[in-house]
From TrEMBL:
<dbReference type="InterPro" id="IPR037171">
    <property type="entry name" value="NagB/RpiA_transferase-like"/>
</dbReference>
<dbReference type="GO" id="GO:0003677">
    <property type="term" value="F:DNA binding"/>
</dbReference>
<dbReference type="InterPro" id="IPR018356">
    <property type="entry name" value="Tscrpt_reg_HTH_DeoR_CS"/>
</dbReference>
<dbReference type="InterPro" id="IPR050313">
    <property type="entry name" value="Carb_Metab_HTH_regulators"/>
</dbReference>
<protein>
    <submittedName>
        <fullName>DeoR/GlpR family DNA-binding transcription regulator</fullName>
    </submittedName>
</protein>
<feature type="domain" description="HTH deoR-type">
    <location>
        <begin position="3"/>
        <end position="58"/>
    </location>
</feature>
<dbReference type="InterPro" id="IPR036388">
    <property type="entry name" value="WH-like_DNA-bd_sf"/>
</dbReference>
<keyword id="KW-0805">Transcription regulation</keyword>
<dbReference type="InterPro" id="IPR001034">
    <property type="entry name" value="DeoR_HTH"/>
</dbReference>
<dbReference type="Pfam" id="PF08220">
    <property type="entry name" value="HTH_DeoR"/>
</dbReference>
<dbReference type="InterPro" id="IPR014036">
    <property type="entry name" value="DeoR-like_C"/>
</dbReference>
<keyword id="KW-0238">DNA-binding</keyword>
<keyword id="KW-0804">Transcription</keyword>
<dbReference type="InterPro" id="IPR036390">
    <property type="entry name" value="WH_DNA-bd_sf"/>
</dbReference>
<dbReference type="Pfam" id="PF00455">
    <property type="entry name" value="DeoRC"/>
</dbReference>
Amino acid sequence: MIAAERRNMIKDLLIKNKSVKVSDLVKQFDVSEETIRRDLNQLEKEGIVEKNYGGAILVDRKSPHPTVLPLQERQQQFAKEKELIGKKAAELIEEGQTIILDAGTTTWHVATGLAEKGPLTIITNAMNIAEQCTTNEAASIYLLGGKLRRNSLSTVGPQAEEELKKYNANYAFLGTSGISLRHGFTSSDLYEAEMKKAMVLASHKRVVLADHSKLQKAGLTSFCTFQDVDIFITSDLADKQVLDDIAKSGVEVIVVSTSDE
């Protein structure tokens, strides 16, 4: 089978299933993993797919902003990178502190690093993060009420925003849909953006977490500028020039190494 024919078949699979895995394609076409990755690289250059950890997803060409995928799909994207970023963020937290954890797949990995932290007060709008935080038996966990967003298992809306006004947290750990040198940190959902703004106001230090794919992408709306953020944590896969520009705005940039992964 020639490469063009195989890529057309991969396109058909993407249209049908919205995503593909490298391991599945290797078996289906009886070719090497390297061959499949070359195919996906070419499809990415054509703007058809966005590669992720272990495969690729179909690009939504109807939307000018990043597509908001279901939670399970987003958890698979750049999974190891997000894990490393989340663990680094958890190192900032000290026993007895109050923290806010935004909904998101990278912030979920912060929660996985809290089991041995001792007493903490944890505030979150994400059901899956609240559940993960129960591994710390000494933690007091507050799940914000509001309207449930099914694709992220998170609550949004005026009720949740009003609850946040009660708190004065040491840290807020925030996810982002995109990072733009012009617009700052952005979200693809207006309601989630308002939640993030409320979290910024309810915290002393603000930490934004993002894998390298979020850089130089602008979501639907901005939720804070670089001047509103104290620390930005990403990986060494991110564009160094962009990171330098963010650092020049006064943000402490922490870069985790992926070289051993």
